[in-house]
Amino acid sequence: GELAKAWSRDEWALNNVCRAIDRVTATALDEGRIKDAIEFQNRAIRFRAAIFGDQSIEFARSANFLALALSQAGRGRTAKDWYQKSLAICESLLGDAHPLTATVLSNLGAELRLSGKAAEAIPYFQRSLRTYEAIAGNDDLNTVNVAAHLCTAYEDTGELALAESFGKRALRVRLQVLGEKHYETFASHVL
To answer: pTM higher than 0.70, yes or no?
Structure first.
């Protein structure tokens, strides 16, 4: 819509290059080529900062993706910083009721939980869950994935009744949507 009208043909083409880099990054992460993924996203972030500025949604998208790669490389502190940069931009420009904001909230929560800070992670997961419930519904897989994150975070903090509640929710929807033999359904049985 409006964004497309505001971009020049060159900006649009360069953003498409960045989106292609995002897809290559995702493939590299799936294949365990973490160093390549970080390199690809560093390139995308430089492009997006030069084209759209370092306070743009496109920059926030790359910052989130770079943080994901850094997290998988075991560079949690740096990943957390990039997630926080991405979140600040998303909150400022998109507000809480946007899927990108919800994704960044969930990713930041996951990073905090992995670094042993489950209690700090829970509010991020809760905000993400509220957003996904509002925009996608209770049976959406993004919503369910955040519920599974909440399950493990509550388990880590010893709040077992809450952990069980979110774990059962994740299992119910995954059985219904993905089926019994899907690996995420199996993971829900383990929760």
So the answer is: yes
* pLDDT tens digit sequence for 26-66: 999 999 999 999 999 999 999 899 888 999 999 999 999 99
Distance between CA 70 and CA 59 in Å, rounded?
16
Classify the phi-psi angles of 7: left when phi > 0, otherwise alpha if psi is within -120 to 50, otherwise beta.
Answer: beta
Spatial contact of 153 and 125, defined as CB atoms under 8 Å apart:
yes
DSSP letters of 111-137?
A: HHHHTT-HHHHHHHHHHHHHHHHHHH-
Structure tokens at 123: 């509010």
Question: Which residue in this structure is represented by tokens 């800070």?
Answer: 117
| CA 178 – CA 167 distance, rounded (Å) | 16
Query: What's at 20, amino acid-wise?
Result: A
Taking residue 42's Cβ as centre, other Cβ atoms within 10 Å add up to 15
In angstroms, the first-to-last Cα distance of the chain is: 42
Cβ neighbours, 10 Å, residue 180: 9
Least Cα distance to 114 among 165, 80, 141 occurs for 80
**Residue 115 host element (H or E):** none
